[in-house]
Amino acid sequence: MSARMHLSPAHDAHPRTPGEEQFALAAELLALLGDRTRLTLLHALTAGEADVTTLTEAGDAARPAVSQHLARLRLAGLVTTRKEGRRVIYALSDGHLRRLVDEALNVADHRLTDRPPHD
Asked: Do residues 56 and 90 lie in contact, with contact meaning Cβ atoms separated by under 8 Å?
């Protein structure tokens, strides 16, 4: 596959014209993903479940900030939690989110690799 950006074929597009509610929810989701730390945390969770300590290391942010971001993601329904003793384990809520995070990073990668050389 070339490094050029490819658009999904029409059969992969949303099956019908989205309504106002779909646009509003999609905009909320994208706003949550628009934060670098939250996107980093979600990307770390694409590899599997993780606790706050692991995500703090992956997110390169202070533990209290990571905890606040995880709380927002949990309240939005983007991550799930379960207890393992005293530890809280986080996971992505579904595969759609995994694909969305991957696609956002793929678009960024293509934009970076398709830049014309600087003089």
From this structure: no
